[in-house]
Amino acid sequence: xxxxxxxxxxxxxxxxxxxxxxxxxxxxxxxxxxxxxxxxxxxxxxxxxxxxxxxxxxxxxxxxxxxxxxxxxxxxxxxxxxxxxxxxxxxxxxxxxxxxxxxxxxxxxxxxxxxxxxxxxxxxxxxxxxxxxxxxxxxxxxxxxxxxxxxxxxxxxxxxxxxxxxxxxxxxxxxxxxxxxxxxxxxxxxxxxxxxxxxxxxxxxxxxxxxxxxxxxxxxxxxxxxxxxxxxxxxxxxxxxxxxxxxxxxxxxxxxxxxxxxxxxxxxxxxxxxxxxxxxxxxxxxxxxx
Length: 290
Ligand SMILES: Nc1ncnc2c1ncn2[C@@H]1O[C@H](COP(=O)(O)OP(=O)(O)OP(=O)(O)O)[C@@H](O)[C@H]1O
What we know:
Helix content: 25-40%
Bound molecules: adenosine-5'-triphosphate
Oligomer: single chain
Strand order of the largest sheet: 5-6-7-3-8-9
Protein name: ABC-2 type transport system ATP-binding protein
Domain ABC transporter: 3-228
Distance between the termini: 30 Å
Organism: Alkalicoccus daliensis
Strand content: 25-35%
Number of strands: 13
Keywords: ATP-binding, Nucleotide-binding, Transport
Order of helices and strands: EEEHEHEHHHEHEHEEHEHEEEH
InterPro entries: AAA+_ATPase, ABC_transporter-like_ATP-bd, ABC_transporter-like_CS, ABC_Transporter_VariousFunc, P-loop_NTPase
Number of helices: 10
Low-confidence stretches: none
C-alpha cells in the first residue's frame, strides 16, 4: 500500500485544518500518528480513508484518489470511536455486514477474538459497554486484514488489561501479515512498542516524522556535571534540561549524522517515545524548535 500526501490542505468553516500536509508511506508498518487535541489527526486519516475531500494538494492511496473511490475502499478499514451501526443489531449481525466488504477478512481470527473479549454474537450493540464496543471495533480492524487499516484512538473505554491484550493481538497479526496500519493515540507510553515510525502533527502541520529506530539512535538523555553535559550536547538540540544538585540531565536530539561518542564521565539513557514527544512538542510551544 503506497500513500502519498502532497501539500494537502483542508479547510473547514473558513479555517485551515490541514496546512500543506505532506507524508509518504511506501512500506508496511505500524505508524504512530501523534499530536495534541485538534492537531488534525482525525481529519488527515479521514482523508486517507476516502471519507473527506481536500481543498488543495494531492492525496493518493495506491495511486488513486481515495475520496468516494469504490475501487479502493475495500482495501481500507477505518476504525474510530463512533456508533457506525444501528444499536438494535447484534455483534453477529455486524460481523456478517462487514465480512463481505474485505477480501482478506479472517473469520476464524474474528471468532476467536470475540470469544477472548467476551462478546457473545447474540448480544445487541445497545447492550455493550463502551469498552466492549471499542473491542468489537478493534477486532473488526484486525480481522479485516485491509491493506490500509486506520485506528483512530480505537480503545476508548477499554480497561488496561483489555488494551494490553488487543495491542498484543494487533502486533502478532501484523508480524504474520504485514500491512500498513496508522494508529493515532494519546496513550503513547503503552503503545510505543507497536510502532515502527512516528508522525507528529501540530495545528494542521506535520512537525516531525521519523523511523523509531533512527530516532532512538539520535535522541539521548544525558546526565552528569553541568559543564560536561552542555559541552557534549553542543551539536544537538537540547529539548529539556533539569538540574538536581550538581547533576544536570538533558534530553538532546542530535542530527542523524552527528551523534558524538559519549565521554566516560557522562551517563546516557534511552528516551521513550512518550518523553520525546512531550519534550519536543513542549519546546515547540516555546517556539524554539522548528
Ligand atoms: N466539522 C467541522 N467543522 C469545523 N471544524 C472542525 C470540524 N471537524 C473538526 N474541526 C476542527 O478541526 C481541527 C482538527 O480536528 P481533528 O479532529 O482532525 O483533530 P485531532 O488531532 O484528531 O484531535 P483529537 O486528538 O482531539 O482527536 C480541530 O480544531 C477541530 O475543531
